[in-house]
Amino acid sequence: MSDRGDHQVSEQIAAVKLTAITKRFGSVVAVDNVDLEIADGEFFALLGPSGCGKTTTLRMVAGLEFPTEGSLKIFGDEAGTLPPNKRPVNTVFQDYALFPHMTVEANVAFGLKMQRVAKQEIAGRVQEAISLVRLEGLEQRRSQQLSGGQRQRVALARALVNRPKVLLLDEPLGALDLKLRQEMQGELKALQREVGITFVFVTHDQEEALTMADRIGVMNEGELLQVGTPAEIYEHPVNRFVANFIGQTNLLDASVVSNDTVCLANGVHIPGKSDLPVGTRVAVCLRPERAGMHPPEEVPPDQQSVVGRLESVTYLGNALVYTVVLDWARLEVRRENQPGGYRPHVGEEVAVSWTLDAISVVRA
Amino acid sequence: MTMVADRPERLEEAAVATPEFEKAAERAASRRGFLLSLPAYAYLVLFFAVPLGIVMIYSFATRNRFGGTDLSGWNLDAYRKLGEPIVRDILFRSLWLAILTTLICLVVAYPFAYFIATRTPLVRNLMLVFVMIPFWTNFLVRNYAWRVLLGNDGLFTNISEALGLGERELLFTTSAVVIGLVYGFLPFMVLPLYASIERIDLSLVEASRDLYASGFQTFRRVLLPLSMPGVIAGSILVFVPSLGAYVTPEILGGAKTTLLGSYIVTQFLTARNWPVGASLSFVLMAVMLVATLVYFRTGGRNL
Fold first, then answer.
1. What's the mean pLDDT when you consider all of chain A?
2. Domains of chain A (ranges plus CATH)?
3. Which residues of A91-114 are buried (b: 16+ CB within 10 A; e: fewer)?
4. What pLDDT, on a 0 to 100 scale, did the predictor assign at position A3?
5. What single-letter DSSP state applies at residue A277?
């Protein structure tokens, strides 16, 4: 990271650059015409439901699959047809794929040995990598004698010891239980800052992507739908799928009336910015935590609102989630559990309200 | 059986678990296991261990002038005879052919087994059936078929003539024997290899490639070590029957290339020297026993 400013050129060359990449398996299109640039030193997440093509995309960067069409560059060099052992990338596999017939030490040393690094240097670098992932003392263990978290660390050390230009991680935390997963999220992030290598990781867990990544690429059915920082993706999703996939959300059916007005499904015109053509079917995306709730007659004049009946209240401890039913929609409102404030009862009429900057208009 | 029969009454009366009950239950279980495996035990003892003992006794006996065997005057003459050049040559030739057959089978079967193991389940099962198909025909018949193929006007001579290599006499040579043995025992190499390769997680191969190993390095460092149980099992399954092979060398081999199996038969039936035949059989068995022990010691139990 420290030398980034020094080289004007390296700042411009993307660590990974996909141009019109398509991968077909027989008649199935796994990855459909994807363009993507991942910057040097970035922590990038490919996010999507299973079968969306994110793992195939990662495997193409690793060289474990070859693209059907398109160009794949790693630090400016065309790499789409290189075998995996000729690419400056390493992978942390989903199930870790540790060699069961080797010790932790031998697993970590494998890549260096294959590159014919001098024995002296191997010993030093292996030790360094093992202490980087805090596995000292376990060098002579075999993978069967390790816990899930330890295996994952061995897999990390085995990849990082080679000082790859890009580290690829395929659902790296998928096999761990919740508590360990959260712990490892923080560790991975810290590790990435420490080594300064570009990390590309694949996950189906939106929370994991939001927590860890500098930027996220959301995929569905082989297409890359949106690329942006966690905030951009959360606050300005491009379409209904992204809005729904990232976090909890309320989607109100609407259509575009002008570039700053939309018509809700109940016929009410409300302010809502979009650059979509008039008449386009859209959804107004209102996050539960951004919605306000008031008695119907007490809605602040600067806010828009819809009125419905409170159906249920879910108590989460630190927050309360209110479900409000309208005859054409169902909304969730999340309120922090503060003392005092408005606490309607189930069955009451309530107004769900929002300010203009709380909503975004997305393609349906 | 009475023990088993009266067990339930005694067990039912105890409602509270006691160490005595636990021990009795375990004893009953192990007794049942023994009784159920008794037929197999009896069969093996009667038809394997006992004859083996008889062979051993004969190997220390003396051949008398009339071609009979005197079960007296125990000595090691028969074993000393194994050191004689003729017998020694046969022993080494047989060992060499068995090793050669095993190696050829290994080299031919490994890529094939890997190929099968990496197919879809349907293709995999089909190919395994193909491996078994030769077993549907009698072994003797298949060996005679090779005689036709390798013979004077057979397929192989015709091909070699067509290629301008001249008339090659293959039948009744050592090569013919090896070809026949490889053909006969190849499935015994393919199946254990397949079984152990099939269990290897193929993401390990990908990991190896990702960690800068070439295809060959991946084979040597990852696939081969992990499929070692199959390599050893297959090698023993091919080596052992090759070493004692009788039918194939008799049919495809010439008189010049006597092998152990034929020699033992000659000793018993023609030379009527039972002690020598018995001692050779015993040595052969010892070699196989060692091979089997090696197999079990090197992780064959995991197979």
1. 91
2. 13-235 (3.40.50.300), 248-363 (2.40.50.140)
3. bbbbebbbbeebbbbbbbbbbbbb
4. 42
5. P
> For testing the chain B interface, which of A25, A65, A85, A161 should be mutated: the one with the most B CBs within 10 Å?
A85
Assess whether B124 and B48 both reside in one domain.
no
d(CA B80, CA B141): 38
Q: Which amino acid is at B186?
A: L
Confidence check: pLDDT of B86 > 60: yes
Structure tokens at B290: 């060692």
State the residue range of the domain holding B206.
Answer: 82-302
Of residues A141, A16, A137, the one with CA closest to residue A80: A16
B65 domain residue, yes or no: no
Q: In terms of domains, do B128 and B213 share one?
A: yes
- Taking CA A133 as the corner, what is the angle to CA A132 and CA A139, rounded to the nearest 5 degrees? 100
CA distance B141 to B144: 5
Domain count for chain B, please give it: 2
Residues B22 and B125 placed together within one structural domain of the fold: no
- Whether residue B188 sits in one domain with residue B251: yes
* 8-state DSSP, B162: H
pTM, two decimals, is 0.81
B210 closest CB neighbour out of A62, A94, A101: A62
SS3 A302: coil
The residues facing B57 across adjacent strands are none
Structure confidence by residue, pLDDT tens digits, A53-94:
999 999 999 999 999 999 999 999 999 899 999 999 999 999
Interface residue A26 vs chain B (CB under 8 A):
no
Query: Is the ipTM beyond the 0.85 threshold?
Result: no
- Give the pairing of strands A261-264 and A250-258: antiparallel
Residues B253 and B122 in one domain: yes
